[in-house]
Amino acid sequence: MRTLVKYSAVAAAAAAVLATAAPAAAQETGSSITVLDRGHVDVFGLAYEDGALDLHVHDGENDVEYAPSEVVLAANPEAETVIPAGYDFLGEEGDDVWILPDTNVEGLLFAGWGAEEILPGDFADDTLTITVHDAWGDVDLYTVDDFGDANVLFDSDQGAGSWEATAGSHGHMNWAFGEAGLYKLTVEAEGVLAATGETVSTGEVDYFFCVKG
Fold it and tell me: What is the residue range of the signal peptide feature (predicted)?
């Protein structure tokens, strides 16, 4: 497990990102950092335009799109809970965990992914793959079925994790963090063009989360 950078406030995390951890693009352009800590957000927003596949952050509350380097995504203190029975991949039952849930809870980020900007027919089988390659600290992304069973999409203890997104689709998952602090997730999306068979990729893109204790 990697050591987390710990801060007591989102503002401090944003400052740290600007000073030490933000991608070079944000630093070179002087882009400001926006903190998103509640409401509907497509963290992994997908678009394919002018031959390029793009990952962005779509703030659905204000209908604004950001480059990932321009945003810190925050889990407010209300996200803190305890690990339930049967979720061993999160850690020991009863231990503290911070979860952004796959349902809309007032005061928390309702975070997911969106491929509404991907047109049918652009990609083979109308399918793209989203991969989380790496993360600082203890991070798990998962969905839960109607029986309460978890489908783990990414577990930082297990290495990279992937799932498919179809053209025009949209989805949410649970985002679990093992402790308060500043996190970075390295993400990539790719797909095979239907017309040429060429694989196109966003390349690896960094996202920053601040989990407040």
Answer: 1-26
Residue-range domain boundaries for the chain: 10-211
Rounded Cα distance, 96 and 33, in Å: 29
What are residue 111's phi and psi, to 5 degrees? -100, 140
**Which residue's entry shows tokens 């600290």?**
137
The answer to whether residue 16 scores a pLDDT higher than 70 is no
Q: What single string gives the DSSP state of each residue in 138-175?
A: SEEEEEE-TTS-EEEEEETTTB-EEEEEETT-EEE-EE
Cα–Cα distance between 137 and 206 in angstroms, integer?
14
Q: What single DSSP character describes residue 119?
A: P
DSSP 8-state assignment for residue 110: E
The DSSP symbol for 123 reads B
Record the pTM. Answer: 0.87
Q: Spell out the residues 6+ positions from residue 49 whose beta carbon is closer than 8 angstroms to its own.
A: none
Least confident of 22-26, 79-83, 125-129, 143-147: 22-26
